[in-house]
Amino acid sequence: MSLSAVGIVLIQTRDADPVRASVLAGLAVIAVASSWALIQVDYMLRYAHLFFSHPSGGIDFHQNEDPSYVDFAYFSVGLGMTYQVADTDVGSRAIRRIVIGQTMLAYLFGAVILATVINLVAGLG
């Protein structure tokens, strides 16, 4: 949704005055950043739900205490930025499926943003 909004903003900024174009560009950046953050929060909640469902576990955070939302946010944001599991071990097939879905979505999201930026920069010249 946010990427389609960015596309609409890009079309509207072509004929807009510089102030309006700057405001629209700022709104587009906020929309994309908010969408990315919302995706990470959604996956964080999915991982926490699966971890604490029966049977519990599936992610080894290498700590003695039970994980908190910060641990699941660390896991989710790490996947969203690097497309890989960093220093945790995934031991559940259900969680692995979600990890694959999140990393594919994150890669697609990043690729579309990169393509949009390249298109925007190429259109400036």
Compute the gyration radius: what is it? 18 Å
CATH architecture: Orthogonal Bundle
Strand order of the largest sheet: 1-2
User: Structural class of the helices, strands and pairings?
Assistant: mainly alpha
CATH class: Mainly Alpha
H/E topology pattern: HHEHEH
The overall strand count is: 2
Residue share in helix = over 70%
Q: What is the number of domains?
A: 1
Taken as a percent bin, the fraction of beta residues is: under 5%
User: CATH fold name, please?
Assistant: Helix Hairpins
Helical region count? 4
Enumerate the spans where pLDDT stays under 50 for 5 or more consecutive residues.
none
Task: Report what the structure shows.
This protein is mainly alpha-helical and 125 residues long. The chain has a single domain (2-124), classed as Helix Hairpins (Orthogonal Bundle), CATH 1.10.287. 74% of the residues lie in helices and 3% in strands. The protein has helices at residues 2-13, 18-52, 69-82, 93-124; strands at 59-60, 89-90. It has a two-stranded antiparallel sheet with strand order 1-2. The mean pLDDT is 89.
Short description:
This protein has 125 residues and is mainly α. It has 4 helices and 2 strands. Helix 1 (2-13) packs antiparallel against helix 2 (18-52), helix 2 (18-52) packs across helix 3 (69-82) and helix 2 packs antiparallel against helix 4 (93-124).
